[in-house]
């Protein structure tokens, strides 16, 4: 915990789904932020209305790091087989930055991973003026499609 007051970016969200996701991610990273260890938290909403939270895990070897969205996806899959509906991630500011937490979109790797497991997933992004829920597929228009498993296995209902 940092002891720093950092406003919840959900305060400006008008959509209740967006607000709940952003608030859950903000609460998680606010309580677990550690410089150079945990800077982002993500929240995933399933079709049953449950939230699943994940924490970014940094590592000395960058490739070994785990994104918050991957952690939230793992938590969701451990808890339920319900369809995943939406995701939001919040980045906590470093001590040298202004005390403003911000909504961040999933990185490219997480876009691929999330779409493998939830092709209809929405992602909270900031469009410059407000937080909005966009189809994640729109953020990754040319997703890799392989032959590792049948398309029917990419959704869990």
Automatic annotation (TrEMBL):
<comment type="similarity">
    <text>Belongs to the cytidine and deoxycytidylate deaminase family.</text>
</comment>
<dbReference type="InterPro" id="IPR050202">
    <property type="entry name" value="Cyt/Deoxycyt_deaminase"/>
</dbReference>
<protein>
    <recommendedName>
        <fullName>Cytidine deaminase</fullName>
    </recommendedName>
</protein>
<dbReference type="InterPro" id="IPR016193">
    <property type="entry name" value="Cytidine_deaminase-like"/>
</dbReference>
């Amino acid at each position: 915990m940092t002891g720093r007051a950092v406003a919840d970016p959900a305060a400006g969200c008008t959509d209740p789904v967006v607000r709940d996701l952003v608030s859950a991610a903000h609460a998680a990273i606010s309580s677990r932020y550690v410089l150079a260890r945990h800077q982002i938290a993500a929240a995933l909403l399933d079709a049953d209305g449950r939230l699943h939270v994940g924490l970014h895990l940094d590592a000395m070897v960058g490739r070994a790091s785990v994104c918050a969205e991957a952690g939230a996806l793992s938590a969701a899959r451990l808890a339920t087989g319900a369809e995943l509906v939406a995701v939001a991630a919040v980045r906590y500011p470093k001590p040298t930055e202004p005390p403003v937490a911000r909504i961040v979109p999933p990185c490219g790797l997480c876009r691929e991973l999330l779409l493998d497991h939830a092709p209809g997933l929405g992602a909270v992004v900031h469009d410059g003026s407000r937080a909005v829920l966009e189809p994640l597929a729109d953020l990754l228009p040319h997703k890799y499609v392989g032959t590792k498993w049948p398309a029917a296995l990419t959704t869990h209902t």
